[in-house]
Amino acid sequence: MAQERGLDNFTILTSHKLILPAMRALLESGDVPIDGFLCPGHVAVIVGADVFGQIVREYHQPCVIAGFEGPQIAAALARLTEMVAQGRPALENLYSQAVTPQGNRIAQQLIDRFFVPADWEWRGLGMLKGSGLALRPEFARFDARNRFGLGATKSLAPQGCRCGDIITGRLTPPECALFGVSCNPFARWGPAW
Ligand code: SF4
After folding, report:
1. Which residue, of 4, 42, 79, 150, has the fewest CB within 10 Å?
2. Sequential pLDDT tens for the chain (193 residues)
3. Cα 122 to the center of its chain, rounded Å
4. Which of helix, strand or coil describes residue 24?
5. Residue 23 in contact with residue 36, Cβ under 8 Å?
6. 94 Cα–ligand 1 center, Å
7. Parallel, antiparallel, or unpaired: how do β-strands 63-66 and 37-40 relate?
8. Distance (Å, rounded) from C-alpha 29 to C-alpha 38?
9. Ligand 1 pocket, 171 CB below 6 A?
């Protein structure tokens, strides 16, 4: 609509990410012990359950898709544990109320129409090839990064913050010296996003 109307006061600051490159980066990092993936239901609604089959086939890691309510997460963790114990990695969709094997085709077509994969910075993982979605060149004039010279997104953590290690599973939260001390529910030290 902005293009059709010739708007020049409309820009978008995108920060969309693709999950598979991040899963592959974790698996290929060599120092992150992973037994399986609790796959996010909101992502799977769009991309479809079958996408995660690549991880099962290529890395022999179990993947279970779940919603975000406590019982849904608990059920998915229980299923993952069973698969690990039985040594039978598979893809299982426990969120079939919302997630179909192929996902939301209309949303996928819209994403393809407006965005293109681009290298993107991730906290704890660094720059991952093709892991983000940038506006297609034909929409570059609506990209706030271009318009305002913002450059690529940088993942900055304050001094002492170990959240990159924590979200990648290298450390647990209490292993951060600031956890519960200068970083607590009332005074955040680490990044909020
Ligand atoms: S407890 Fe706070 S400072 Fe420590 S890793 Fe987590 S967010 Fe960063």
Report:
1. 4
2. 999 999 999 999 999 999 999 999 999 999 888 999 999 999 999 999 999 999 999 999 999 999 999 999 999 999 999 999 999 999 999 999 999 999 999 999 999 999 999 999 988 888 999 999 999 999 999 999 989 988 776 767 788 899 889 988 899 999 999 999 999 989 888 876 4
3. 9
4. helix
5. no
6. 31
7. parallel
8. 19
9. no
Cβ within 8 Å of residue 155, ≥6 positions away: 121, 122, 123, 124, 126, 164
Nearest atom of ligand 1 to the alpha carbon of 176: 4
Which class does domain 2-7+9-147 fall in? alpha beta
- Which of 158, 152, 192 is closest to 176 using CA atoms? 158
Assign 184 to helix, strand or coil: strand
Q: Distance between terminal CA atoms of the chain?
A: 30
Contact 142, 11 (CB under 8 A): yes
Span(s) in the chain for CATH 3.40.50: 2-7+9-147
Residue nearest ligand 1's atom 3 by CA? 161
The residue type of 90 is A
Sign, CA torsion 128/129/133/137: positive
